[in-house]
Design goal:
single chain, Aspartate Aminotransferase, domain 1, 2 domains, 7-stranded mixed sheet, 5-stranded mixed sheet, 13 helices, binds pyridoxal-5'-phosphate
Length: 381
């Protein structure tokens, strides 16, 4: 089946009892047993819930994976994947990274005994030179957050495998519709389903998709043993979101390209980061491994310090100043003081997260209104 058909149908067969076309929201914590241990596959909702099962089936099919697992948040999913490792293991990680992923690595798993190197994973030679005998995982974000760097998934998968390590791809920015890391050789895909999968800024959830049976069994064990599971209502909301994912991603990408082109020609903008612009250093790689360049655009306004930015937000009528991304509404985020504030300033500047850097999550509104909004805001800088 083609992707758009899967998005609508995967995991959601009409309910055998009532014919309900949409999976019911199973608000139940426990399930009646005929005799001890004799049941219909459901015992307790931390372990399994039918609404969550429907979602997990859908998630697996979207990433053409054998297995899909839903977690209470993207961070809970990230936590579970890192728990596949043992103290002493080493992980090579994209330097340009979601702030929360950086935080859990540095502040939760480093004290626990894992070792991390944050490097430019868009450069194969740099990654190659970072392997140690104890390297067990390569963790990449592509496109990355917030600078939209692209890392070569297939080449990194080969490299990881020759060193006996797994390649994990945080596919949140691209979504399974725009990029299929498992098909390119990656071992595990992680998502913040809070973003494009949910798509409407009304739910927090995470997901893991993979093919390896042993890792799946361990992750399924951790999901139940640790218990960071989503509730049935959240599972329902993400299932609903997924049905329109292809439609939304086309519109997000179309709007984002128009905005990136507008910004690139604006005299107050010094840099635009968007993989759909021919000026992006990895434009060709993005074209090769992504179906469309996506809805995230970052750019740098020509300012000297944070103070110069203080009037930018006041002019905005359509864009909302907020963290997060991937919803139908357009958001603007100031990484230095918001999403990436937990990264020390010197590290931030070295990465390119400057006072004038803004990250847009371009929504599905009319592009003319979005551009008019940015025009006014840029005038006030
Ligand atoms: C938001 C986000 C996460 C964390 O997900 P939550 O659902 O907020 O816990 C991880 N990675 C990326 C790229 C994200 O954007």
């Amino acid at each position: 089946m083609k992707w758009a058909t899967l998005a609508v149908h995967a995991g959601t067969e009409p309910d055998p009892m009532t014919g309900a076309v949409m999976v019911p929201v199973y608000f139940t914590s426990t399930y009646a047993q005929e005799a001890p241990g004799v049941h219909k596959g459901y015992e307790y909702s931390r372990t399994h819930n039918p609404t969550r099962t429907a979602l997990e089936t859908s998630l697996a099919q979207l990433e053409s994976a054998k297995y899909g697992l839903a977690f209470a948040s993207g961070m809970a999913a990230t936590d579970a994947v890192l728990r596949l490792l043992r103290p002493g293991d080493h992980v090579i990680v994209s330097r340009d990274l979601y702030g929360g992923t950086y935080r859990i690595m540095r502040q939760v798993f480093e004290p626990w005994g894992l070792k991390f190197d944050f490097v430019d994973t868009s450069d194969i030679a740099t990654v190659e030179g970072s392997f140690r005998p104890e390297t067990k995982m390569v963790w990449i974000e592509t496109p990355s957050n917030p600078l939209l760097h692209i890392s070569p998934i297939a080449a990194l998968a080969d490299l990881a495998h020759t060193h006996g390590a797994r390649l994990v791809v945080d596919n949140t920015f691209a979504t399974p519709y725009l990029q299929s890391p498992l098909e390119m050789g990656a071992d595990i895909v992680v998502h913040s389903a809070t973003k494009y999968l949910g798509g409407h800024s009304d739910v927090v959830m995470g997901a893991i998709m993979l093919n390896n049976e042993a890792d799946y069994q361990q992750l399924r064990f951790l999901q139940n043993a640790v218990g960071a599971v989503p509730g049935p209502m959240d599972a329902f909301l993400v299932l609903r979101g997924i049905k329109t994912l292809p439609l939304r991603m086309h519109k997000h990408s179309e709007n984002a390209l128009k905005i990136a082109e507008f910004l690139a020609a604006h005299p107050k903008v010094s840099k635009v980061y968007y993989p759909g612009l021919i000026t992006h250093p990895q434009y060709l790689l993005a074209k090769q491994q992504m179906r469309l360049p996506g809805g995230m655009v970052s750019f740098e306004v020509k300012v000297k310090n944070m103070d110069d930015m203080k009037n930018f937000w006041k002019g905005l009528r359509v864009f909302t100043l907020a963290e997060s991304l991937g919803g139908v509404e357009s958001l603007v985020n100031h990484p230095a003081t918001m999403t990436h504030a937990s990264i020390p300033e010197s590290d931030r500047l070295a990465l390119g997260i400057t006072p004038g850097l803004l990250r847009l999550s371009v929504g599905i509104e009319d592009a003319d209104d979005l551009i008019a909004d940015l025009k006014v805001a840029l005038q006030s800088v």
